[in-house]
Amino acid sequence: MAACVSWVSCLCIHVSISAWYVFALSFYTNLTTSGIDTRKITYGGKWKYLTFLNLVLQTLFFALCVLTDIVNLVFPAKYIRGGGFKSLLVKFRDDLFTMFAFPYATFVFSSFWSIYAVDRELVYPKVIDAIIPHWLNHAMHTIIVPLVLVQMYIQNHAYASRIKGATVMLFSGLLYMSWVLWVHHASGIWVYPFLNKLSLVTILLFFGICAGLQYLLYLLGEKISGRIWGHPGSQKKRC
Fold first, then answer.
1. 112-134, pLDDT tens digit by residue?
2. Are the beta carbons of 102 and 110 closer than 8 angstroms?
3. Which residue ranges run through the membrane (predicted)?
């Protein structure tokens, strides 16, 4: 099992990761679109892509980790188990990680590279290589997983009940699926090229499979956390 890393060490790691995400996000938001059919990217902008939403999510999460570390360093007398603002801050961090940051990072990684391996044109057309550098592609679709695993190792995260986890993830998944359908309804284009090849029934079935996969990834995170930090009832010091 992992030993609890000091708040100072955590702060250094989190500042480094946050700086990386801020850089990647800033670079991505300032990309030009020459050579791409702008009709396919105008409606909803980058906000319709799960990859971009996850990049924003990871940036916000690690910024929250920095804030949590600073609060615990500045106010060491009020230990987090004493309740109050610090306890709420850590709980919010844990919920954000367990129900969003870890499941979505692993989902983006697994779904993107699985489809890419079959036919990259279905999810990441070759023309995009002229706009998005390879390092940024990996920043958005690959490095996200090692970074959440680092986070899982250096800090223990309390998992909510599985019913709550399933409910929150189902709701967030439905929101995104509704957004994808609305974009198609309003603009006539699908966010992801491969959806053009599917019937509406198949698309809904695909969304259902994705929802199931996300919940399995949530359970995987819980399992990995348990292996690192012990069972949920463990009395090990939490960071």
1. 999 999 999 988 989 999 889 99
2. no
3. 55-75, 96-115, 135-154, 166-192, 198-220
